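Re: duplicated header lines in exported C-alpha cells

Our pipeline writes sequence and C-alpha cells for each protein into one text file. With two proteins the header for the second block appears twice in some exports. Here is an export where it did not happen, for reference. First protein block:
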Amino acid sequence: MNLTPENIFSIQNAVEFEALALEIFRFQAKNCKVYSQYIHHLHIDTDNVNSINDIPFLPIGFFKTQSVLSNTEPVEITFSSSGTTGMVQSSHYVTDVKLYEQSYLQAFNQFYGDVKEYCFLALLPSYQQRSGSSLIYMVNDLIVKSTHPQSGYFLYNHDELFETLINLKSENQKTVLIGVTYALLDFIEHYKIEFPELIVMETGGMKGKRKEMVRDELHQQLTTGFGVPAIHSEYGMTELLSQAYSLGEGIFKCPNWMEILIRDTNDPLTLIENGKTGGINVIDLANINSCSFIATQDLGRIISDKSFEVLGRFDNADIRGCNLLVQ
C-alpha cells in the first residue's frame, strides 16, 4: 500500500485504518529523526510492533523543542500554538498544506455535509489577532469555500453579528458560528436569539479573559443564549492536521483517518480500557509528514463506538515518563 493522501482519506473500516497506521509507523520510525530517537531510547524493536496498541506515542512537548518532520521537502507553512506569555510555543512544520485542507474539508463533510451549503461566521478574536493559527487557516478557507456573501469574521462588532444571525435565520440558511468560548459568552451577555437550527461551535478556552467553567454550566449558558438544543465543539490542536467533532454533550467522534487511545497516567506506555480516565493519545494519519502518533497533555476517556470525552489537562506534576528527550 502506498502512503498517499488517497489511501489516507479513503479509509472505511478498522482493518484498513490499522494496516495504514502500521505502515505509516514504520515509515516515520525510520524517517522522523526525533521519533526514531525516542523509539530507540525506549528500546522498542519496530519489527515487533504489529498492532496499533503497540505503537509508541511521541509526547506532544517535542513540538516545542524539535523539528518533527518525516521528509525533506520544503516547509510550506508553520502552524504555531498560542501559549501564554513566557511559554514556549509549539511549532508544526507542514510540508504539504493540501493534506490539512483535505482533512478539514472531508471531516466537515463527514459530520455536517457540503461546506457550500453553509454560511460561516467566526468570532475568534484571540486567534485572529496573532499569526500562525491553524484554526484561522481553516476558518479562512471555509469562509471562502462556502461562497456565502455573509460569511466572515466578527471581531468585537457584536451588533453586526446579531443582525447577521437574525437575517440568516429569516432566510432559513444553514449557518455555523464558530467562536472562542469567552467571545461567545461576551456576545450572549448583550444579545439573546432563538435560532434552533444554528450550529454553535465553541473552540474551547477562556484565553485568560474569564474564569474557566465546567462544560455543563458553559453549554447551558450558551444553549440558552443562542436558543439552540446543543453546543458543538471541535477537538484539534496545532500539532495535528485533523479534528474530532462533538455534535453535543461534549462527546467527540473522529473522522475515519483519526483515532483516540487512552494511556495510563502513571505508565504512559500502557493503554487502559474504555470508560477509564487517562491521557489522550491521538493517531492522526494526515500527519504523515510529521508524526501521526501523539501523546497529548489532555485527559479523557473512550465511551463506546470510538466516541470520547475530553475531561481536562495534566498539570506539570502529573506528566510522568513522557518527557524523555524533551529539552
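Second protein block, exported in the same file:
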Amino acid sequence: MLSERSDEYLETLLSDVLEVYGYDFTGYSRASLKRRIVRLYELDRFVSFAEYRYRIKTDATYFKRFLEQVTINVTEMFRDPAFYSTLRTEILPRLGTYPFIRIWVAGCSTGEEAYSVAIFLKELKLLHKSLIYATDINNTVLENASQAMIPMSKLQLYTENYLSAGGTENFSDYYSANYSLGKLKDELRSKIIFSSHNLVTDNSFNEFQLILCRNVIIYFDRPLQNKVFELFDNSLEKFGYLALGTKESLDFSPVAKNFERLKGEKIWRKIN
C-alpha cells in the first residue's frame, strides 16, 4: 500500500467506494484523504492492498469503520468563541424578525455545533420558533449526536468556550451529569433534526436563513468546493447567512457575486 503505486491504489479504492456504496470521495483533497486511508490500512494490519480492497467492498460493517476513519469528526461546543460571539450578537437577533427560523449545520459531526447554536437561540428567546437541521455523511456520528451526550472530560473546555462566546447563563444548567457523560437538555434536542446528507451527491432539501459549514470545505478540492457553494446558494433565502471555517472562503467561487462578506468572521450574506 505504501509503495510507489499507492496513488493508483487510492484511486481504485475511491472508485470502488463510489460504485458499491455511493459515497463520492473523488473531489476530496488527496493528501489528507490518502493519509487517513493509509493509517487505517496500517492500523488494521492488512498484508496487501488486495485484501484491504476486498474487505471494504464486501464487508458493509467494515466499510462503516472505514467511513468513520476517513471522514473528519473533530469538533467542540462553541468552537472559535469569537465566531459564536458574532453569531449571538449580530446574526441570530436579525433572524429573530422571521416568523420561523430554519438553520442548517452541514457536516455536523457529533452535533456539538448544532447544540451550541440551540443554546444561544434559547438565550435569545428564539428557540421556540426555530428548527436546526444537522447533517453529516457519517451515520455513526449522527447516531452519537442524536443521543445528546457530551464527555464530562470536555466540560471545562466547553464552559470556557461558552463564556468567551458571550453566554449569559450557567452552562451547567444545560446538561445533567451522568458518570462520565453529560446529558444535554431535551429542550435543545427537540429542536434539532439529525439526518444523513452527502454534500457531494445530494441536493438542496429546504430553504434556510442560516447555513453553517465550518471546517468541512477545506478538505475538498476547488471544483468540489464550487459545487457545494452552489448547493448552499440554492439553499439560502435572500438575505440569509453562510458561515464557514477560519481557513475557508467563498470569495473565489462562481456564486461569490451573490454574497457580501461581513466584517470580521467568515460570514457571508446572500444579496441576490
